[in-house]
Give the backbone structure.
Amino acid sequence: MTMKGERFSPRIYMEENPKIRQILKIALVVVFVIIGALLVVVAIDVYTWNGFVVRASKSLVDGLALSMLLFLMVSGFFLIFGLCDVINFAHGAFFMLGGFMGFVIYIATEAVFLDPTLPFYLLFGENYFALSVVAFIVSAFGATAVLALIGGGIEFFTIRRLYGNPIAQILLTVGFMFIITQMAEIIWAPSQITFDIIQWSQISYFFISGIIDFGGGLQFDLYRIFLIFLGLAVAGLMFVGFKKTRIGLQIQAGIEDSEMVEALGTDIRKLFTIVFMLGAGLAGLSGAVLVPWIGANAGHGLTYLIFAFVIVVVGGAHYGRFEGTFFGALIVGLSMQFTAYFIPFLENIIVFIIMAIILIIRPGGLTGHA
Amino acid sequence: MHNVKNILDTIKEIILGIPSMLSSNKTIIAVLAFLFLLPMGTTAGTSPTRALLSLITQILIFALLAMSFDLQLGRSALLNFGHVALFGVGAYFMAFTLDADVLPPPFNLIAAIPYPLTLIVAMMIGGALGFIMGLTTSRMRGTAFAFIALAIAMFIYNFFVENPDISGGETGLSVATPDLIRTGPFYLLFITLAFVILAAFIGMMILYIKKRTDYTGLILITPVMVVFTCFTFVFGRNAYGSVFLFMAFLVMIVLYFMERRKSISDPLQYSENLSITGGVKSSNIVTTYILPSTIIIIVLSGIVVSFGSNIAEMVALWIEDSSIFYFTIPVTYYLVLTCLVITYVFIRRLIASPFGRMVTAVAQNEERAEALGYSSHRAKIVVLVISGAIAGLAGAFYAPYLRVIDPHSVLGVEITINAMLYTIIGGIGTLFGPILGTGVVVYSELNLVDFITEGLGLPGQLWLVVLGVMYIFIVLFMPFGIVGSIGQRSSNLKQSLRQFNLGRINFGLKDADYWVFGFLGIMGLILFLLEDIRFLPFVIGIFGFLGAIGFLLLIVFRREIWAKTKASGGRIKSRLRRRK
């Protein structure tokens, strides 16, 4: 309905003229493609063709590895936020604690495997490579289990009393963030912990120093490629789990409308605890697999918490879908590594630029409602 | 001519409105009077009070920040993860105006702006940034707004990190103390203000005692005056000032009994113990004008006698060498306190105004408010601008207070989280909550290490863990913050205190009586924080006084008390029997 004297509004004009809208859309895409091509040409001009290919492929691999890692962590945050409506400030701390747990469990397991009095010694013998790989897998699962227990315990004993009071939940989770961060700092000191410090360990040959060389400067760390496949595997597993299993369907439905799910006879309280355990466990797993790459540090909590915020918002926070988080993590990880290799001064803020653009175009994120 | 008459009428109205203004803000005036009196106790040398003043200044600066945060979260339901940006731009702007060498030439002209004006410009910059944040609220709701604000804050933080030339980088940018804070007349201005507020406090007490002519009034006013006298005795430079105050105290009791004589507590028992003589009219003049003005003059001159030499020494310090911080700490304290009070009053009026109601309506149900014809977008923008101005002001105070600022200390994400904690712990949507929460958290942050190492014998690193445990306990047992939860629970207590009778006499507390506890509470708190051994006589005196009153009541009303305990004992017995 247009009245006389009404101001010209581009949005209404667009709605009335779908053809112009379509033309503008195509023009926008063309402009973006041209800008992208120009950037590539400039980059090739600056770094030469060979240098450009090396940088691009390295940033691609690193970016994919980082995004898979972030996805592992943020999917837990997303589940907790989506289903329970709890902004879990302690999630970064869970992630950080997962790193330390993985490290501790790895060292303990390796010591057990190397002990000649125990039967494991017969199993591995002198095969240190298999020993370290098995110990690493054990450590990842151990960190997952420990963090799942911690997360479930926190939900069961404290957060359970505070559903429906989001402000109090923030205070509670911030309290847990302080406690976990400071305990980790007291126990393991504020410095970075990496697997390099264990010199006799075989793990560093595979995970840290393992390199795939294609020649011509195209060298990739093996561990980052491993991370990509791990992330894809977990994502696939979760995707299938959400589509096929009963509990996954219940969780997905609960994110859409938790009251309706409760009315249909699901024990939503139990579901909340399970989701908390799952979320914290995923944070633990991602923390544990981060250690061979970056290391464990008590300061990681807050840094990665902000990434978790950004990815969840980009992917669609309210009533969003699981795939949104996956693509959000991809966008964030890839853009961070690309800028790190090509435009270093933008590395810290590119994430926020992208988030602002996405939120301005789609206020609800990629998959969510406004 | 007509215009002049109008102005005179307005002035007359304002003057006539003063008593009701005083009576309706009893607690604020009582607490303020004490807080304004406190810096006068500092001598020109070192004194423990000065360290406390510095701590209170920090608390007040962060309280301003928390109040601005609460204006968004508590009043208009805007969760803002980028609140620190508003604070940080104020702080950096203040740093740039105080040092002309930081910014490149065309921009360093802002250093020419005189000091009090820079505060206003800092507020305007904070408000402008709040406006930019507010522009996004038309499309963004809930979390999306929080994260756009976070993105803005991160842009600004990274801008300052990437440009160490202007931000000081890791080593930090040193901030000079503003010249005005180091001048004597500015100090004297605040001293004058303190005397005005003290006069208001005494006037408030007189108004109170004239209305509250039953025994409760006397019982409540006595400890206030005793404590006030003791304070001047302990902190003043000589004992004469406290003698003046004691005289004022006696005059006040005389006033009380004169008012009591002509007051009618129960209209049905009118003629029994009341003798109306011809003196009513003359005593009216005495009790309305002569005695109150006498009391105010005696008290103010007592304060001058007690603390005059301190003030004179401070002014002498300005003439000798103004750059030392003995001088700047009380002045900064006064300045921040005054701004906090103005902000508090402003916010209180704002939320009571039609606009404040509209903001609340928008926060509770945006669609309904829009359907009623209000523009929710405009309301949010205005709230963000006001809140940004307050946060910018807090930042502008914080930079000279901290002396060295770097991007992390004024623009770090931790400050947003802290502001959120202060607000939530105090209680969102309450006026006093953010201030109280700030006090609790800042004080415990600064003193937990000492408490843990000396009090509990544990390693001091655990302080953050203890703080976290404290938050968890607060949130589990007071889910609406300290002020919010206590406010919810205390209504029953208030009800039972109101109907406290002994015999035929009502000792109940009315709403107008609670300022006494506010005054005694803030005084006890400050003296406790001073850890001064000299305040022990106070405690003994107050408890002795209360014990004496209790003993007297016990003797006078022994029969009634005995009957009451019997009755309640019987009730308990019967309840036990029922349970069996």
Summary: DSSP finds 14 helices and two strands in chain A. Chain A has one domain: 61-361. Residues 61-361 of chain A form a domain with the ABC transporter involved in vitamin B12 uptake, BtuC fold (CATH 1.10.3470).
